[in-house]
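Bumping my old thread because nobody answered last time. Still need a sequence for this structure:
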């Protein structure tokens, strides 16, 4: 069951495709501002709450391999969550920009000793090592970042389409895609495009 509350009042009309692209950009800007306005205390509270929300989600499921991400740009910090999942024996993986297939992701094993570097978006990712790659269809859960989401579990990302490509036809694959978000990132309706992939679940605190 989704953990969703405090829906944003930000709404907008849907008209032409050109307008929709503009609306998506406007929405990204608005929600990123909302998220950036959260106080340090609010961020710390959210970091603790998301840990419990994730553990509750995982508890009834036979899960071993989990992909997540290192938080960036006001996203809920995943630092405490990562520590908790390591302690509970889960195998963790981080996304890496695919070096030979632009717009796609690889998932590399992530431990406390994994060396990191900043990618072209200034986001930390593991240094590519093909021996550490796990194919996405061997993951059990992919926790995804997002900018905005709605009650239909649509997600709006940063616009690169990396996760949209990864999650394409996820219903026919082994993993479940789950979004993590602040509750202030919820809007009435995402102006969805045909390539947008609704998630299995969104955990928002």
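Sorry it took so long. Here it is:
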């Amino acid at each position: 069951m989704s953990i969703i509350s405090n829906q944003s009042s930000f709404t907008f009309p849907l008209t032409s495709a050109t307008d929709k692209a503009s609306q998506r950009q406007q929405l990204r800007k608005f929600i990123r501002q909302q998220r950036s306005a959260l106080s340090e205390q609010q961020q710390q509270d959210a970091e603790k709450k998301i840990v419990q929300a994730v553990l509750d989600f995982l508890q009834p499921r036979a899960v071993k391999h989990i992909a997540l991400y290192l938080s960036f740009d006001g996203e809920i910090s995943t630092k405490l969550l990562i520590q908790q999942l390591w302690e509970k024996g889960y195998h963790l993986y981080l996304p890496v920009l695919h070096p030979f297939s632009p717009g796609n992701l690889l998932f590399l094993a992530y431990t406390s000793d994994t060396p990191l570097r900043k990618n072209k978006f200034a986001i930390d990712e593991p240094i590519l090592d093909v021996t550490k790659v796990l194919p996405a269809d061997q993951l059990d859960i992919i926790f995804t970042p997002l900018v905005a989401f709605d009650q239909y579990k649509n997600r709006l990302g940063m616009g690169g389409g990396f996760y949209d490509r990864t999650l394409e036809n996820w219903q026919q694959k082994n993993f479940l895609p789950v979004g993590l978000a602040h509750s202030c990132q919820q809007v009435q309706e995402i102006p969805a495009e045909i390539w947008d992939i609704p998630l299995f679940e969104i955990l928002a605190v």
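The chain is about 25% helix and 20% strand. Let me know if any region looks off to you.
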